[in-house]
Every structure is written in C-alpha cells, then in structure tokens.
Amino acid sequence: MVNLQLQLQEAHNEGFSEGFVDGELSILNSEEFGEDVLAQYVDRVAGYQSQISILENEIQTLEAANENLQAQIDIFIERGEPPVPVNADATPASITSLRNMTNIGDSLTNVTATRDNFRNTYSEVLRFEEWEVRWRNEYAFQVLLDSRYTRIQGVIFVGYGETRDYEVDIRFEMDGRIYPLDISTLDRTTRPISIDIDLSGVNEFRIIVTSHHENPRHSIEVFFGDFNFIP
Question: How far apart are CA 38 and CA 187, in angstroms?
Fold first, then answer.
C-alpha cells in the first residue's frame, strides 16, 4: 500500500494534477479496496509513467525539428531568400484520372464502348453509378485536392443514341464557389462540352448534376470523357 501511494505521489510530481492524485488516493484508502483492485492501480500508475516517457520523447523530437527548421530559416534570411514551407506529408502530384481520385461524394463507374451523341470516342469514360441517380434529383462527385492540382481537363457529354427529352443541370464548385460554364444545361442535342478549369489553390472540388424531372430515372445521363487533374 505504501509503495502504491509513493507511485501516485510520483505521478503527481511528474505532472498529473493534484486533484487527480488525491482522488486516486481517496479510493485507495477506502475500506472496499481489495488486493485485485490494488494490482490494477499499480498497472495504471505504471501506464501513466509510460505515457509521460513517450510524451517527453515526442517533445524532444519536436524541439530538435524546430531547431533544425530555425537553422534553415536563419540560412535563408542570411541569403536574403524566403524560407520554403516544409510539409513532411506532401508528395509530388502527378496527372491523375478522375476515376483514381479519392471521391468522398457519390460513386462513379467506368463505362466501356460509350460514344458521345456526335460519335466521338474517348479512352476513358465515367458516369455516376445507376443506383446513385435512380432515386435522387441531385448527386455530386467530391474530392479534396489540398491545393496540389492546377487544372482539371476533360469532356462532358450526352451518350450516343440518347432519346429522352428531359434536361439536367451541371455545375462545378471550388471551395464553395460556382465556376461559370458557357453551357450548364444539357439535353440530348447538346454538343460535347470541353472543360479546362484553373484549380490553383483549390482544396475542395465538386461536380454536381441536377435533374429537371421529378423522376430522375427519366433524365438523360451525363458522361465524363478523359477527365484528368493536372498538377
């Protein structure tokens, strides 16, 4: 018992609050305390001390990294150059297909052997999953870019042989701002729309499709041909 009390006091000295330690000691001194509970408390105190040791090591690592960064800043200042921001998690971006982006919105699926309504063909064609558009009038593709891409390029089109007369609206949003398209409403006669949008500094990017018909299954399908994000 005395040994455990000493360990709790050591925990207090290492940085745990006085109220926390007093609370532990009051439980420890109660008559309901058995040997099994005492053993659990010994393990808990050992765990607290282990956490303190881990935190101390992390603090030392951060302090060393800070000293290194400050040394680099001092060198840049001496040269008269601005310091370069350091992001340890950043990796160089490469040209990335719409299909290969981490989509946090509605699902896209690959479509094979699909031409647009003017018989042009594309190496890669995507559309929203059928179950996404069957019951809702609006659905969206959404990605977080972390400002790693400068442009998005591709073609929006209506599929060859489309016979339905109902329209859909399409819009692009960048960090909540709507990008103005020359053509934003599509029907079965709409020519393919080439997209080349500046994404510099954009974090969140969305493509949103809205059906004009109360039953979205009656609206035309929108396809995305050869869409790529450019670093």
Answer: 75
- For residue 55, the enclosing domain spans 2-79
pTM over 0.70: no
Identify whether 147 is part of a domain.
Answer: yes
Query: pLDDT confidence of 70, banded at 50, 70, 90?
Result: confident
**CATH value at residue 193:** 2.60.120.1060
Neighbouring C-beta atoms of residue 137, cutoff 10 Å: 15
Across the range 120-141, mean pLDDT stands at: 83
Identify whether residues 125 and 216 lie together within a single domain: yes
| Contacts for 158 with CB less than 8 Å, ≥ 6 apart | 116, 117, 186, 187, 188, 190, 220, 221, 222, 223
Position 42 pLDDT exceeds 60: yes
Regarding whether 103 and 212 lie in a shared domain, the answer is yes
Q: Which of 19-28, 35-44, 204-213 has the lowest mean pLDDT?
A: 19-28
- Report if residue 28 sits inside a domain: yes
Q: 199-209 in b/e burial notation, b at 16+ Cβ within 10 A?
A: beebeebbbbb
Provide the 3-class DSSP secondary structure of residue 206: strand
The Cα 141–Cα 198 span in angstroms is 18
